[in-house]
Amino acid sequence: MTQIRVAEAARFLGVSDDTVRRLLSSGALESGGGSPASVDGASLGRYAREHAVVPSDGLGVARSARNRFVGIVTEVVSDTVMSQVELQCGPHRVVSLMSTESVRELGLEPGVVAVAVVKATTVIVETSDDAR
């Protein structure tokens, strides 16, 4: 069983240490046991997934891609052919390369709300040596 310290669990959830302690006390999160207090990693993962807040893009469109990140365009760097568009999607920075023509057609500029849709055939997952 993976044990995650209360402070680290709080960072993952975007809440205070006290909130994690209350979640442990109420049974919403399972204790990882040990001292100092910790959270069971599997319990934290379930809680994070069940309580994730995903802003709606309001489009009501069905799609096969499950990885959708609603965010704000923070930067657009363009030349005559290609552009780099950066979005801040919650805590995640997402960068897309696209044609400058597409940037113009979509009206992408800093401050515009946009959705990054990611459909990848390869996803690389890394862990620290401590996790093994």
Task: List the topology elements.
Layout: E1 3-5, H1 6-13, H2 17-26, E2 38-40, H3 41-50, E3 67-78, E4 82-89, E5 92-99, H4 100-106, E6 113-118
Antiparallel strand pairs: 1-2, 3-4, 3-6, 4-5
Helix pairs in contact: 1-2
Give a verbal description of the structure.
The chain contains 4 helices and 6 strands. It has 132 residues and is of the alpha+beta class. A 4-stranded antiparallel β-sheet has the order 5-4-3-6. The protein has a two-stranded antiparallel ribbon with strand order 1-2. Helix 1 crosses helix 2. The N and C termini lie close together (11 Å). 14% of the residues are buried.
Give me the strand/helix succession.
EHHEHEEEHE
The unreliable regions are none
Whole-angstrom Rg: 19 Å
Distance between the termini: 11 Å
Task: Specify the biggest β-sheet.
Answer: 4 strands, antiparallel
The class by helix and strand makeup works out as: alpha+beta
In terms of DSSP E residues, the strand content is 25-35%
Mean pLDDT: 84
Q: Going across the biggest sheet, name each strand in turn.
A: 5-4-3-6
How many helical stretches? Answer: 4
List keywords for this structure.
132 residues, alpha+beta, 6 strands, elongated
Short description:
With 132 residues, the protein is α+β, with helices and mostly antiparallel strands. It has helices spanning 6-13, 17-26, 41-50, 100-106; strands at 3-5, 38-40, 67-78, 82-89, 92-99, 113-118. Helix content is 27%, strand content 30%.
